[in-house]
Design brief:
By secondary structure, the protein is mainly alpha-helical. The protein has one domain. 57% of the residues lie in helices and 2% in strands. The protein is built from ten helices and two strands. A two-stranded parallel ribbon has the order 1-2. Helix 1 runs parallel beside helix 6 and helix 6 packs parallel to helix 8. The longest helix has 28 residues.
Length: 258
């Protein structure tokens, strides 16, 4: 849940700070890297940062579950059960697959139900080049959080109406809505057709590409993501192939004897 809350706190700060301040962005990256490395000295493998506190990880679990194929695990030579369920080697992982505590339930509910509206709201806020007041600073949160609340409410209502066996499909629909909404606004912004001038601009092709091609691109990506995440049959594959389970007792005894 901390990772989910961190996501919703940090991302709007891009409009207020990080999109226009390279020093602040560098400090944030160094700070988060320091947290991840430090936690690695106290917790096993990916349990603390990668699968716990990283703000990006809940999003990966939301729309990265129905993978095309599995790859060998490049990080773990033995499975130490550092995270249960393992997000890397659990087929068709999603944020609500583990609901052991109220914190798991709230975190899963927020990311599944709230992300589509949050993304929509985020793209309706311009970058603030100069923060002159607290109201301007907190203003970057207003529309994203309203959008989050709306789609979260819709998800809660639908999840209470539909049969439980269709919940995974509902999660997939909201995941596809979120990622489709992101590229619906991101692709035009990257190419110079964005809502707010140069916000998010990568290369300005406004005078090169005909304007009618943008709707074709964004509709095509939407159709693709709904096919990939909703229509395509889950293949029961995980991101990576789980390595052999380690026997922690035997490993501990070997280390002590050595």
């Amino acid at each position: 849940m901390i990772a989910v809350v961190a996501l919703f706190v940090i991302v709007p700060l891009r409009h207020a700070v990080f999109n226009n301040n390279g020093i602040a962005t560098g400090i944030m990256i160094i700070f988060m890297a320091a947290i991840g490395v430090t936690l690695g000295f106290f917790y096993e493998w990916k349990s603390a940062w990668c699968s716990g506190l990283c703000p990006v990880h809940p999003v990966e679990k939301l729309y990265g579950g129905n993978v095309l194929f599995s790859l060998p695990n490049a990080n773990c030579d033995q499975c130490m059960n550092c995270v249960i369920p393992c997000p890397d080697s659990t087929p068709n992982i999603n944020p609500k697959i583990s609901a052991k505590t109220i914190y798991h339930k709230i975190g899963g509910l927020l990311i599944v139900g709230g992300l589509p509206g949050f993304i929509w709201g985020w793209f309706h806020v311009p970058d603030e080049h100069t923060i002159t007041s607290l109201s301007t600073f907190f203003g970057v949160y207003q529309i994203p959080l309203i959008g989050l609340a709306v789609t979260l409410l819709v998800y809660i209502l639908l999840s209470n109406i539909i049969n439980a066996k269709y919940e995974r499909r509902l999660i997939s629909i909201f995941a596809a809505s979120g990622v489709s909404c992101y590229y619906w606004y991101r692709i035009p912004a990257l190419l110079g057709f964005g809502k707010f001038a140069d916000d998010g601009l990568l290369i300005n092709l406004r005078n090169v590409l005909p304007e009618w091609i943008i709707p074709i691109i964004i509709v095509s990506t939407t159709i693709f993501f709904f096919y990939w995440l909703v229509i395509r049959k889950p293949n029961s594959r995980s991101w990576v192939i789980r390595p052999q389970f380690a026997n922690k007792v035997e490993n501990l005894e070997a280390n002590l004897s050595a």
